[in-house]
Design goal:
This protein is an alpha/beta fold. The protein has 14 helices and 16 strands. The strands form four sheets. The protein has a six-stranded mixed beta sheet, sandwiched between helices. Strand 4, helix 4 and strand 5 (about 155) form a beta-alpha-beta unit. The model is unreliable at about 1-55 (pLDDT under 50).
């Protein structure tokens, strides 16, 4: 090969090598040193998806069961009026919680513990009810509370009176909302003793509520220096009180304490008037009286009765506004304290479920209800204690004479208001296992 061709091939090879050299192998210029490359940004995390509306709600519906007396002696103080109260609470809340619809169902426990317990089981196991409300008749309430605890659901009791619901039989799944026998005893009982009624004879309905009420009032009477001269028990839903009233009359007691409720209280007071017992100087003390009882008796018969209640429809503008709406849908009848308790407890339950974002764990819902202050147009501001006792003031009222009433259902005049901390049993005296001492 000639020197010329050889030099030409060498030149072409040099050009080809330069063209194929990767940029990273090229020599950097001394005057422009290479910069350290910036680290690559971390890959962005995918956003956590927000829970769908109602994702924490069981069965895609929140179901409230109103369990009470729909046809017996407690129907006026509970019954369909309590169902209406629950529905009005749901409507006023907006009908849904976090997008989940709220439904209200109802059943009649007939004031029988076994029927109440069976209905509760069916509601939880078959109908998927989340919370039971109202439940008058203390024996039924105690039975239902046990079922609720075992199923980890919620009981909001407005209608029963026994202090055992927040005492030995307290439950992390139960709240006792409206009143109890301790509050009645320290309201009506104390007032009657203070006005000179220092000797008592009790006419007591023979089941848990009556026994609890008699005991609590008797304790107040004795602590105030008074005497209990005796008592007689009568069956639930008694029509003829003549023999019981004759025993009370013959005792010579200044006060005949009626440790009963509803139709039994009405029948006992009517019979006492017919026998002339009050004309003979003895006084009647209705220890649990509802406005529906006063309406059934009439002011001419009920005038002068003293009673204790946390709610009266004509208290202020808020109670009057609610009661007007309620009466328009309730045949003209205003709410009593039991109906008010159903409304307020359901409203607070819905607030707690909304804050929790779930309804499946009854204990968690009740715990949240206890954490949150209570506030509603019927009871105002309040709270719920560790034992499940809802706290609010109680008021002592006297039934007006016919000439004092100026409008329909204008039945009460206020005697005094009892602060919440005085109205209910002190927590330090509680026998509830949930209370830390």
């Amino acid at each position: 090969m000639s020197p010329f061709r050889t030099s030409k091939l060498v030149a072409l090879a040099s050009l080809l090598a330069a063209a194929l050299s990767p940029p990273s192998l090229a020599q950097p210029k001394p005057s422009a040193p290479a910069k350290t490359p910036a680290p690559a940004p971390a890959p962005a995390k995918a956003p956590t998806p927000a829970p769908a509306p109602g994702a924490g709600m069981t069965d895609k519906v929140i179901k409230i069961g109103v369990l009470n007396d729909q046809s017996g002696l407690y129907a006026d103080m509970s019954g369909q009026s309590s169902v209406l109260a629950a529905r009005m609470a749901v409507e006023d809340f907006g009908g849904k919680v976090n997008g989940t619809p709220v439904e209200v169902v109802a059943a009649d426990h007939q004031n029988k513990p076994d029927i109440g317990a069976n209905l509760a089981r069916q509601w939880f196991d078959v109908d998927k009810v989340d919370v039971i409300v109202d439940v008058p008749t203390s024996s039924v309430a105690l039975a239902v509370s046990e079922i609720v605890k075992g199923k980890n659901k919620v009981l909001l009791d407005s209608g029963a009176g026994t202090v055992e619901l927040t005492g030995k039989a307290c439950s992390p799944n139960t709240i006792h909302w409206t009143y109890d026998t301790y509050a009645l005893a320290h309201g009506t009982g104390s007032a009657v003793v203070a006005s000179g009624g220092d000797s008592w004879f009790f006419l007591t309905v023979d089941y848990t509520f009556g026994q609890s009420l008699e005991k609590d009032v008797a304790d107040v009477v004795k602590a105030s220096g008074g005497k209990v001269l005796g008592s007689v028990r009568h069956p639930l839903n008694t029509a003829d009180f003549s023999s019981f009233l004759l025993q009370a009359q013959s005792s010579g007691a200044k006060v005949i304490g009626l440790a009963n409720a509803g139709g039994d209280t009405i029948n006992a007071i009517k019979a006492a008037r017919e026998f002339g017992i009050t004309e003979g100087g003895q006084k009647l003390a209705g220890l649990l009286v509802f406005i529906s009882d006063v309406h059934a008796l009439g002011l001419s018969t009920a005038q002068g009765l003293r009673l204790t209640s946390p709610f009266y429809w004509d208290t202020n503008e808020q109670t009057r506004a609610f009661s007007k709406r309620f009466a328009e849908r309730n045949g003209g009848r205003v709410p009593d304290m039991g109906h008010a308790g159903v409304y307020a407890s359901v409203l607070h339950y819905l607030k707690a479920v909304q804050a929790l974002g779930a309804d499946g764990d009854g204990r968690a819902v009740v715990a949240r209800m206890k954490e949150m202050p209570t506030e509603d147009p019927l009871f105002g501001k309040g709270s719920i204690r560790a034992d499940g006792r809802k706290l609010h003031p109680m008021s002592l009222y006297e039934v007006k004479a016919p000439g004092e009433s100026k409008k329909p259902w204008d039945y009460y005049k206020l005697v005094r208001t009892i602060p919440a901390e005085q109205a209910f049993k002190p927590l330090a005296q509680s026998e509830c296992p949930l209370v830390k001492k």
